[in-house]
Amino acid sequence: MKFGFFDDVRKEYVITTPKTPLPWINYLGSQDFFGLISNTGGGYCFYKDAKLLRLTRYRYNNCPMDLGGRYYYIKDGDTVWNPGWMPVKTELDSYECRHGLGYSVFTSSKNGLQAVLTAFVPVSDTCEIHRLKLTNQSDAPKNIDLFSFIEFCLWNAQDDMSNFQRNFSTGEVEVIGSTIYHKTEYRERRNHYAVYSVNKPIEGFDTIRDSFLGFYNSFDDPDVVREGKSKNSVAHGWQPIGSHHLKAELAPGKSEEFIFVLGYCENPRDQKFEAPNVINKKPANELLAKYQTSEQAQAALDELHAYWDKLLSTYNVNTADEKLNRLVNVWNQYQCMVTFNMSRSASFYESGLGRGMGFRDSCQDLLGFVHLIPERARERIIDIANTQFEDGSTYHQYQPLTKKGNADIGGGFNDDPLWLVACTYAYICETGDFSILDEPCAFDSDFSKAVPLMDHLRRSFNYTATHLGPHGLPLIGRADWNDCLNLNCFSEEPGESFQTFGPSEGPVAESVFIAGMFVKYGKQYAELCQAQGLEDETADVLGKVDQMIKVVEDAGWDGEWFVRAYDAFSNPIGSKVCEEGQIYIEPQGMCVMAGIGVEDGKAAKALKSVEEKLDSKFGIVLLQPAYTKYHVEIGEITSYPPGYKENAGIFCHNNPWIVCAETELGHGDRAFDVFRKTCPVYLEEISEVHRTEPYVYCQMVAGKDAPTFGEGKNSWLTGTAAWTFTAISQYILGIQPTLKGLGINPCIPSGWNGYTLDRVYRGVTYHITIDNAAGAQKGVACLTVDGVAVPGCVIPAEMVAGKQEVAVVVTMG
Ligand code: BGC
Ligand code: NOJ
Fold this sequence. Notes:
Elements: E1 4-7, E2 12-15, E3 25-28, E4 33-38, E5 43-47, E6 54-56, E7 71-76, E8 79-81, E9 94-100, E10 103-110, E11 113-120, E12 127-136, E13 142-155, H1 157-160, H2 164-167, E14 173-176, E15 179-182, E16 192-198, E17 204-208, H3 209-213, H4 223-227, E18 240-250, E19 255-266, E20 273-275, E21 278-279, H5 282-289, H6 294-312, E22 315-318, H7 322-342, E23 357-358, H8 359-369, H9 374-385, E24 397-398, H10 416-431, E25 440-443, E26 446-452, H11 453-466, E27 510-511, H12 512-531, H13 535-554, E28 565-566, E29 572-573, E30 583-584, H14 585-593, H15 602-613, E31 623-624, E32 650-651, H16 655-664, H17 668-678, H18 687-690, E33 698-701, E34 712-715, H19 720-732, E35 735-737, E36 741-744, E37 754-761, E38 764-771, E39 780-785, E40 788-789, E41 794-796, E42 805-812
Parallel strand pairs: 38-42
Antiparallel strand pairs: 1-2, 2-9, 3-4, 4-5, 6-13, 7-8, 7-13, 9-10, 10-11, 11-12, 12-19, 13-18, 14-15, 15-16, 16-19, 17-18, 20-21, 22-37, 23-24, 25-26, 27-28, 28-29, 30-31, 32-33, 33-34, 35-36, 36-41, 37-38, 39-40, 39-42
Helix pairs in contact: 7-8, 7-19, 8-9, 8-10, 8-19, 9-10, 10-11, 10-12, 11-12, 12-13, 12-14, 14-15, 14-16, 16-17, 16-19, 17-19
C-alpha cells in the first residue's frame, strides 16, 4: 500500500494522508540551524547541537509517537483544524504534505478554506520560516482566527526533561509587538535567545503553556483556541511557549499570507542587555527585517532551491528505470547530506541527547557526500584527525560543538583508525587535492603536537599492524564495525554499557573484518605513499598487506566463507563449528571488496554462501542462525531478540558491501538484485510492511527470524546512505574517482542496454554514454573521450585539463 507518491519534477515526496505507518519526516537546514519536521507538523529545531542548543521541546516515546511541533490552529466558525492535521485531528477535506529538499509544504483544506504552510530554513540564516497562506475558496466571506503555537525547550534538551525542580522556576520571556523572545538563562551564562515572530500585528499572544492550553488539556484542545481569544500571558518559570493570535477577514477568493520566523539569536557577551535585564534585540531585529514580506520569503526559498539544484548537478544518471533515477539523483544524495549534517544525533529514533559524531560513522558518511561538498569534507577530515591519539588509536566519538573527543566512551574500537584512511583517500580521489596530506592535525585536540595528516594515516595503519592477536589477525578491542560484537566485555549486570564495560583491549579477541579493512585500506594507503614518492614505505605496507591476506586465507577461512572473529578464548565466531551465528555478512563483504580470494575462488564461494544462507526477500540478514540466548562472551549482539538489529536483522549498511563485492566478481545481475531489495523506492508499494519513509534508507529491516519480517526501523541517520550511494554510483553505474582521474567501469544487469550520466569531476563536466548493446554484465571494450580512444578504464586528469565539458562513450563487452 502506498501513502503518497514521488513528484520527480519537483523532487518531492508527496504524502497524501496524515496517517502514515510511522511519522514520515524531513530535515530543514543546511548550515547551523536545523529542524526535523514530520508529515503532521511534528518535530523540533536546534542550533548546531541537538542536545545543548535546542529551541523547541519534543517529548520522547510519546503517545501518539509524534506529538509536539509547530502547530497552527485555524478557527473557522466552530471548526478548529491544523494544516498538518495534528494535533486537533479534525477530518480534513483535503491534505497533502510535500517533503522537498530542505523544505516541507502542507496543503490542506476544510469547509472551503485552504491553508498552504511552507516550512524551511534559509540557506544562511539561523531560523525556520513558516509561511502560511489562507485562501477562502468558498462563496461566502470568512472571519478566521489563527493561533500559532510552539513550546520552548530550555536549551539543554537533556536537562529540560529531567531537572524539573530547577526548570520550573527559570523560564523567562519578553514580548514586544508581534515578537516573543525566549530568554531563559540569558540573565546568567547564556548569550543567546530564541525569537518567534510574525510579520503582522497580532490580536494577542500567550507565553504560558497552561494559560494557552488549560491545565487539564492536551495540544488537541487549547482553551485559548476554543475561546477564540489569547490571554496575553507572560511566562515566569514553568513552561514558556510562543503563541500569536491573528485574524484574517477573507472575502470569497481572497488570500492572506503570514510569515512566521522562529530563530536563534546571539549577542557578544559584553552587549547582552539594552537595559537592566532587557535583552539586546539587535540581532533579532536584523533577522526579522529580512523576512517581512512574501517576496523576501520567496527569494529565500528560491535560494534554497538553487542551492540544492547546484549540489545535485554533480551526479545525475538517466537509466530506463525511473525509480533508480530518483533514488540516485535525488533522495540517496539528499540523505547523504543529512547524515553529513546530523551524523547520528537527531532523528525520530536518535534523540539528539546521546551520541556525538561517531569517528567511523563520520568517516564513512564522507564517502557519500565528498563529491557534493568537497571543501566541507576536507574540513571534516581534519576535524576527525584532530581527535586521534598519538599511538594511532582514536576516540570513538567527538562532540560537534567542541570538536573534542568524547572521554565518556573513550577509544578501543579497533576498526576506527582505518576509516580515516578510507575517507582521506576518497577525498583525494575526488578532488586531486594531495595538499590535505600536509595539513597539520592535532593529537587528542592538542595542537602543540600537530603533525601532517599523512602521519596520522601512517599511525592508523601502523596501529592495526602492531595490534595483532594469536592468529596474526587484528585485535578487535571493544568492537569493530559491529558495535554489538563485544568479545572482551563479559557484562553480567543490567544497565552496564556493552560498549564501554570490560577492558578496551582484551589480549586475544581478533577480527577478520578488520583484517579485510586492513587489506582494502592498506592498499589505498600504499597508493598514497607511492604518490608521495615513499618507495620504501610503499613496499613495506604492501608486504604487510600481503601477509594479512595469507592470514585471512588461513585462519580467516572456513572452507565455505570467511570467519567473523575469534573470541577472548580464541574460539571462532561466525564459523560452521559455532552452534549459532555460523556465518556473518561483514567479512564476506569486506574481504571480497579487498580482493581477498578473488583469484582462487574463495570470494565466489563466500558470496555463494551469503546467497544460500543469509539472503531473504527483503535483503541479506547480518548472520545466521540468529542467537537465541545471551552469550556473555559475545556481548550485545546476543541481547537482541532473533531477527532484530545486529542479531540477524537486515542491516542495510552492509548489504551494499555485498553489492560491491558481487561487482568485483563481475556479477551485475546479482549485484543489482541485492541492491534493489533494501532500496526504499522499490518498497514504496509495501509501505504498510516496511513502514519507514519510502524516500530514505533505514538502518535496519527486521530479518526472517523476527515476527515482523520486512519492517524497517531507525530511518535517516545511517551509514547505509553513504554506502548505498557508493555501491550504486561507483560499483554498479561504475563512475569511480581514482587518484589519477575518473574511472569508468560499470557492472550492471545484462538486460540493461545502457544509460547516460552527467558527472562533474574536478571542475569538468563529463557527459557519459554507456552502451551495452552487447548485454554484458561487466567489461569495458572501448572508451573514448571526445572521440579519442583511451586505454583501460581511467580517464587521466591531464587529458581533460582546461576543458569544461567532455563527451565520454563507453562500449561494454
Ligand atoms: C546498537 C548499534 C549501535 C550502538 C551504538 C547499539 O545498541 O545496536 O547499532 O551502533 O548501540 O552505541
Ligand atoms: C550503528 C553505529 O552508528 C555504527 O557505528 C555501527 O557500525 C553500526 N550501528 C553497527 O553496529
